[in-house]
Design goal:
The protein has helices spanning about 1-20, 25-45, 50-85, 85-100. The protein is mainly α and about 110 residues long. Helices cover about 80% and strands about 0% of the residues. It starts with a helix and ends in a 13-residue tail after the last helix. It folds into 2 domains: about 1-45; about 45-110. α3 packs across α4. It has 4 helices and no strands.
Amino acid sequence: MSDRFSNNMEIRDKIKEIYKGENRRTAWFVTVVLVFFIGSWFFGSGNTIISWIKEARELNRQERQIEEYRRQIEAMEGSIDQRETDIDTLEKFAREQYKFAVPGEDVYVIE
């Protein structure tokens, strides 16, 4: 534990030396420029990291929606195929959805 503490102290001392030593102007200039660029990546206008994250979330949402639509289309195509091939299913669908009836048949609609 003390070894780790001494390493942290050494690092702090080196950083202090950099910012207070003979090249301090260069160190501060580099720091300010880096902070400016990193800040502009996060909070600037246009193409920022935050906008990338928002766009990635929107893309994932749209991809999930596309998959849901594909599943719905497959289910609908299956029911269409079943209605096209099975006359009893087609007749049941027409009676239930469109209230079709055979001529002479009494139909009671209950809602």
